[in-house]
Amino acid sequence: MPQEVTVEEIFTVLSDRTSLGLIKTAYAGKLNFSSYVGTLSKKQFYTKLKRLCNAGLVEKREESYYRTTTLGSLVYNGHIQTLEDALKNFWQLKAIDILKTRDDFPLDHNESIIDEIVNGSNLKNFINSTHLTGFSIIKDFNRLIIDILRMLEDAKKEIYFASRYHDPHVSKKMFEKVENGIPVHFIDGNPKQISVESRLNAVLRTPPNEETYRKVSKLVKSRYFELKNLEPTSIERDGRNIIVPKFNSFLVVDGTQVVYENINYGNPEEFIVAIARYDDAYLSEQFINYWKLLARDAIEPKLLENPRVRT
């Protein structure tokens, strides 16, 4: 077995029907040529079996028998069997796709019908309705960053963003949207020393190169970029200072997609979970209103005020 295998290598090995049959038999019981039922010659059988072994999906057990490895069992049970079950419900899944494109049903009606379709079929054995609607729960912070980047990439009209944490990849994507003429309304909840304002000021004072200076200068003058600061407060607990943000981070894209986080109130710097809704105009509107409410107490940086006076 190689030290590492890739997704592409695994799918290549499983790309024909006979290899799928072999791993299915190895998962269900003991596999060898004597127990194999099919049209492969002995040489073909062991050639395909060797490829499965090299991919780390099958291994030799108990003399001449072969069984799936832990990886092979996970691939079979989590992907192959799931795909087979999904294909048995092809028309139910097609009906769900049609429902998701219907504009004449309210969103909650669509989701209730999808839920009925799922519960009325064996789809419920391996998915739930949230897999098929615009809703997800995100428990990993790195996954949250990926989801935010995807939502920003999707933005075509307008972005409302309030963040208590700075991620350079997110900032870069947000600035790209401004350059492309998409309005970005951003409330920065970072402490002043690491705020977006401080970072932009640092570039303007000592730019790494002419192109970066030009981009940042254009950014701070852009009518598409609204930046406001709402610094966190600090409290003393057990002899140390704890940073307490004045809001939980959230993002609204094009008035339909929204993701918002919950934090650990025992330790406000710790991420707990985020909830994303990908097709919810009502919830998006509520968070846009919340952004505007926060903006009343936020401060526009001098960084932006001065260039705009000159333009």
Describe the structure.
This protein is of the alpha+beta class and 311 residues long. It folds into three domains: 7-87, Winged helix-like DNA-binding domain superfamily/Winged helix DNA-binding domain (Arc Repressor Mutant, subunit A), CATH 1.10.10.10; 89-133; 136-310, Endonuclease Chain A (Endonuclease, Chain A, 2-Layer Sandwich), CATH 3.30.870.10. It is built from twelve helices and eleven strands. The protein has helices at residues 7-13, 17-28, 42-54, 70-88, 90-100, 107-119, 141-154, 168-179, 196-205, 210-221, 281-297, 302-310; strands at 58-61, 65-68, 135-138, 159-163, 184-188, 225-229, 233-237, 240-244, 250-253, 257-264, 267-277. The strands form three sheets. It has a seven-stranded mixed β-sheet, with helices on both faces. Strands 1-2 form a two-stranded antiparallel ribbon. Helix 8 (168-179) links the parallel strand 4 and strand 5 (184-188). Helix 2 (17-28) crosses helix 4, helix 5 packs antiparallel against helix 6 and helix 7 runs parallel beside helix 8 (168-179). The radius of gyration is 27 Å and the shape is elongated. Residues 305-311 have low confidence and may be disordered.
